[in-house]
Design a protein that fits this description.
The protein is about 25% helix and about 30% strand. By secondary structure, the chain is an alpha+beta fold. Bound molecules: flavin-adenine dinucleotide.
Length: about 800
């Protein structure tokens, strides 16, 4: 079979991800697909995977993707006639200490929130299920009955056969060597066997995805790491249906295979694969190849595994597998379209759970590539979560190795990474440090999370309960509610949108009306074709043809790409990222006007500078772009200061605010303040799965205006029928409960949803959470008010009150249309 001259889709890579994507493109979309594999199918990372298949993740959407994989592996052989080796053995996770046990209790609640069955069982029950296991050090275990194991190569061959049955053409021994580009668009894929013109490319090249992406100008931040496991000879007494085991406190995992065990682990000192090729490229001829056994490095796992399964001490090791797999800096895989190329989608960086993800990842990636829009909220895996920082190979490597090393460590709430820091700092970094700042990092930016009191150590002490910052953050919170505080939010992403068609373009892209006169600012969502919220940002109109957009630090590449890729055809408009040009100081609190008035000759009165307006003002001799807006629900200004002047402006504000007790305030207080006032966070409370109507933001959708905008049709449909879910606030009576998000919401004892975010409100003195209450037939006020509510927190039921309005709003400022 020779290569065709043209195909609508070219999928690069014949591992599990490429085959699954080709299968779904062909089966679900009847698309014309060509898959190109440089060696043979499965010859990359797929053939040597251990084959454990777990499903539960902290994101509901990713859990759904993994559940889909299991459903597909169960029945694929009926369709293709090729078995996948799927065995629903269940998975045991072992807890050896109380913190781990708390983590599992929270996981069990998350599982219930996501509609999965997970049991917490005693050491004796573990022993009964898995008699060869030593359980004397166990506190207990979680058991997820629908997890299992499968044969990676068999699944992949079955998917490939299915793809062919639906019309896809698969070519082995064809290597992609480049792309023919027209601007930012690929028009043809170049190979060592010729050229294939195409409309869309899907890069599923595994650990080669970075170098394949680079051929089209995109960055796929991943790092190959060596991962080892052993396969033992048969172990007498080991059941063929033994549950897979994850023993995170001993950093190891187990799976039954042909009567013996597969055993591997995640060590704290992982080994990156330095290929020796320029740029760290992976050799093209790395097919069905492994590294030499490294028992010295593996010994740490063996010692732990023998303590768990003593039979391992005497059983023979049949084989050791030491293979490379691509890992990412945050432990999540990578899907979607990169900003730099109009028609290359990526599915790579599977962090040693590509077999578990393969079926579902291929499903959503195919949908995404066909429709140009993710079919559900896939933000945590979206390639647009990365930024320019991720072009730094050394940084990616350091952070990736840290993430690998943490694979099995206890996930303490609010835990920060420590590698590659500090990386990007605002000019205020040293000043904030002098105030006792404890920094967190977001997209490489160091941002103050909280400030330690003089004489106390400025560092996080992680625990499963209240952490050491709880008190100081409360003080910061109260300062902002009662007087004035100053936040360094310089990491905010900022763009200027200019040109004769800027108004028309933004009017189409934004759900709210941004066509108000210069000097006004508008809070708006950007909607996808399903009416779901793709972005949540502030648009300030500076002039007839000039807009200033401010959005969250982490959404920099995503929001810009969404705006640029939805500009109306032929529109004369430019989108410039000006993030580094301006530092942002948010001066917030009832006394903020008094402070600002002292350092600015401009009129700060409400009449001269009303809410939801933008003005250029002078502060401490510098021209500053001031936005009267708030995320804490108090009087305040975001001051966007030319970056070189931010030190002067900060010092002047701090001096002017001495009498008011002004202090710098961090992001953890911001979170508490916003929760109390009902300001929503994109990525958790509002996502591409949620419409503004369901989130209580229907007032910000310009349905009454007779203009077309992105998501209008879907918004009309959603707003015209009963809402199947509605975002509500919850507060518990018990004050010592720790809410983190994903706690189950019970109405009259029945699950109706889960918290999308949770925390503590220091003014109301209560734990607070937000979450969608769901009901197929519709959720109305009466339904909400008539229920009795509880939250399930780490498997325990806690009485809660529902709130349809912000929990604290006596006289605060809110953005309304
Ligand atoms: C030791 C080990 C154990 C593991 N255990 C598990 C497990 O228990 N459970 C689990 O879920 N996951 C596990 N994994 C992870 C799993 O193997 C991977 O996540 C998965 O195989 C990734 O699939 P892929 O399709 O992305 O990559 P690959 O299988 O590597 O496929 C990519 C393909 O692209 C091809 N390609 C690259 N460049 C080109 C080019 N220029 N032209 C054409 N073709 C090209 C390659 O030849 C390759 O075949 C394990 C990994 C390792 C290393």
């Amino acid at each position: 079979m020779s290569l065709p001259a043209h195909a609508r889709f070219v999928v690069i890579g014949g591992g599990i991800i490429g085959c699954s994507t080709a299968y779904h493109l062909a089966r679900d979309h009847k698309a014309e697909v060509v898959l190109l594999e440089q060696g043979q199918l499965t010859s990359g990372s797929t053939w040597h995977a251990a084959g454990l298949v777990g499903q539960l993740r902290s994101s509901a959407s990713i859990t759904k993707v993994l559940k889909y994989s299991v459903d597909l592996y169960k029945r694929l052989d009926e369709e293709t006639g090729l078995a996948t080796g799927w065995k629903m053995t269940g998975c045991l996770r072992l807890a050896c200490n109380q913190d781990r046990w708390t983590e599992f209790r929270r996981l069990a609640t998350t599982a219930r929130s996501f509609g999965m069955e997970m049991h917490l069982i005693s050491p004796a029950e573990v022993k009964a299920m898995w008699p060869l296991m030593e359980v004397s050090d166990l506190v207990g275990a979680s058991y997820l009955p629908s997890d299992g194991q499968a044969s990676p190569s068999d699944i992949t061959q079955s998917l490939a056969k299915g793809a062919r049955m639906h019309g896809a053409r698969i070519f082995e021994n064809v290597r992609v060597t480049g792309f023919e580009m027209k601007g930012e668009r690929i028009v043809a894929v170049l190979t060592d066997q010729g050229r294939v013109a195409c409309e869309t490319v899907v890069n599923c090249a595994g650990q080669w995805a970075r170098q394949v992406g680079a051929l089209a100008g995109i960055e796929v931040p991943l790092q190959s790491v060596k991962h080892q496991y052993i396969v033992t000879e048969p172990i007498p007494g080991l059941s063929r249906d033994a549950a897979t085991i994850r023993d995170p406190d001993r950093r190891t995992y187990f799976k039954e295979e042909v009567g013996g065990l597969v055993m591997g682990g995640y060590e704290p000192d992982p080994q990156a694969w330095d290929t020796g090729l320029p740029g760290g490229d992976v050799p093209a001829d790395w097919q069905f190849r492994l590294f030499d056994d490294d028992f010295d490095h593996f010994e740490q796992h063996l010692a732990q595994a023998i303590a768990r399964v003593p039979a391992l001490e005497t059983v023979g090791v049949k084989q050791m597998i030491n293979g490379p797999e691509s890992f990412t800096p945050d432990g999540n895989f990578i899907l979607g379209r990169a900003a730099e190329c109009a028609n290359m989608y990526v599915g790579a960086g599977f962090n040693a759970f590509g077999i578990a993800s393969g079926g579902g990842a291929g499903w959503v990636l195919a949908e995404w590539a066909v429709r140009g829009e993710a079919p559900l909220d896939l933000w945590v895996v979206d390639i647009l979560r990365f930024s320019g920082l991720h072009r730094d190979r050394q940084w990616v490597k350091d952070r990736t190795l840290e993430a690998y090393g943490k694979h099995y460590t206890i996930a303490f709430p609010h835990e920060e990474y420590s590698s590659g820091r500090p990386r990007i700092v605002s000019p205020l970094y040293e000043r904030l440090q002098a105030h006792g700042a404890v920094f967190g990092s977001k997209l490489g930016w160091e941002r103050p999370n909280w400030f330690a009191a003089p004489g106390t150590e400025p560092r996080d002490v992680y625990s499963m309960g209240r952490q050491n910052w709880f008190g100081p953050v409360g003080d910061e919170h109260r300062l902002v509610r009662e007087a004035v505080g100053i936040f360094d939010q310089s990491s905010f992403a900022k763009y200027e949108v200019t040109g004769p068609d800027a108004e028309r373009a933004l009017d189409f892209i934004c759900a709210n009306d941004v066509t108000r006169p210069p000097g006004r600012l508008t809070y708006t969502q950007l909607l996808n074709s399903r009416g779901g919220i793709e972005a949540d940002l502030t648009v300030a109109r500076l002039a007839e043809d000039r807009f200033y957009i401010v959005t969250g630090t982490g959404f920099r590449a995503h929001d810009r790409s969404w705006i640029e890729s939805h500009l109306p055809n032929g529109a004369q408009v430019a989108v410039d990222d000006v993030t580094e040009a301006y530092g942002t100081l948010s001066l917030m609190g009832p006394r903020s006007r008094d402070v600002l008035a002292q350092v600015s000759p401009d009129d700060m009165s409400n009449a001269a500078f009303p809410f939801a307006h933008v003005r250029e003002i002078d502060v401490a001799g510098h021209r500053v772009r001031a936005l009267r807006v708030t995320y804490v629900g108090e009087l305040g200004w975001e001051l966007h200061v030319p970056i070189d002047a931010i030190g002067d402006v900060f010092d002047a504000l701090m001096d002017a605010g001495t009498k008011e007790g002004i202090r710098p305030v961090g992001y953890r207080a911001l979170e508490s303040l916003r929760l109390e006032k009902g300001y929503l966070a994109w990525g958790s409370d509002i996502t591409p799965n949620d419409s503004p109507f369901e989130a209580g933001l229907g007032w910000a959708v310009k349905l009454r205006r007779n203009s077309d905008f992105m998501g209008r049709t879907a918004s009309e449909t959603i707003s015209a029928r009963p809402l199947a879910k509605r975002l509500c606030g919850f507060a518990t009576e018990a004050r010592d409960v720790v809410l983190l998000g994903r706690e189950t919401i019970l109405r009259n004892g029945e699950p109706v949803g889960y918290l999308t975010s949770g925390g503590y409100g220091y003014t109301v003195g209560r734990p607070i959470g937000y979450g969608y209450v769901r009901r197929e037939e519709g959720v109305d006020e009466a339904f909400l008010r008539e229920g009795e509510y509880e939250l399930v927190v780490a498997t325990e039921r806690v009485p809660a009150h529902i709130h349809m309005a912000p929990l604290y709003d006596p006289k605060g400022e809110r953005i309304r249309a």
